Every structure is written in structure tokens, then in C-alpha cells.
Amino acid sequence: MLKKLKVEEKLFSKKVKNIISIDEVGRGCLAGPFWVGGLCFNISYFKKLKKIDIKDSKKLNFSKREKIFKLILKTKPKFKIIKYSNKTIDKYGISYCFNKAVLKLVKYFNPDMVLIDGKKIKFIKNKIKKVRFIIKGDEKTISIGAISIITKYLRDIYMIKISKQINNYFLDKNKGYGSKEHIKQLKIYGPSKIHRLSFIKNFYKP
Fold it and tell me: How many domains does the chain have?
């Protein structure tokens, strides 16, 4: 826990008032939308958030993620999620969508500092003055971990609901990622209306 507190608390000690932490969900999926979430917070809210045992969302099963999501929700987080459909991804590419989402979130919240999970992106660095990229940020910071859990949980719920309409690909289990079962069904049935055609070229050829 102490390691996680360093990034945000160091910024607050430097008189930074408002921070937005950003993470993405669904980048490598074969099907479904790409979601980018942003959590805006100040030191007062952060004190509430750090009381929750927030862990990397990728290392949590659905029930544990749901439990932490509900605890986060009780703190009344100020967050926003930008969503891109599979068709938009096919048309513009995943990197374009992520960069555009980050700029939208920054414009919406107008924070003093931006924390982004992942490696440095030159385009974003040139557009935003106060930004810090943190590799494995969902493990190293509480705030990125929180928005990661929020975004992933809500997207998972969406994929579970959509699987009831599109039930040939086990989307309720794989959430659109390329599991063995998903790829097998894709080869049998071909793509659905929510598959990313630019992502399935190695698995499906019409």
C-alpha cells in the first residue's frame, strides 16, 4: 500500500489540486467496444479512496472486482468513460481512439495533472503540458487502479448483456478477448456485428 501512495501524495505535496487518472479497457479484444475511463479527484477524495484495498483489476476475478467496484462507488467518484465502437476502431485505429479519448477527458475535467497508465505517447505528451505516464499504473497507483476497476467492471457488464443477443462466441466469459473458444466459434460462424474486422484477419478470412 505504501508504494501506491507515493505518486498521488507527492503531487499533492507540490500543491497540485486536481488530478485525472486514465486507463483503458478492451484494447486487444477481437469484439466489442474500446473504453477509456478517467477519474478526477482532489486530496479530500483521495483520502477516502485510499481506505479501500484497491488492486490491479486484471488480477481480480469478476466477483472480487464487483465488490471493490461497489466500495468505490460509495465514495461517489467523479469519473467519465469515453466509448468507441468496433466500427470506429476499424475506421481510425485503436491508438487514434485512445489519444482522442484522453484529450476529451482532459478537456472535460480540466485537471492540474494527468496520470496515464502505460508507456509515454509522444502525441499526448505534445498536447498536454502536465502529464505523467506510468507503466503498470494500475498496480502502482491507487487512482489508476480505481478507474481501471470501474471501467473494466462496467464494460464486463456490457459484454455480458450483449452476449445474450450474440450468443455464439461466449462473450459473457471472454468479454471479447481472443480465447480459444472465441476463435473457434469465429472460424465456424464468422464475425458478428460487434467484431473488429481489422483485428480478426489472422483468425477469419471470408
Answer: 1
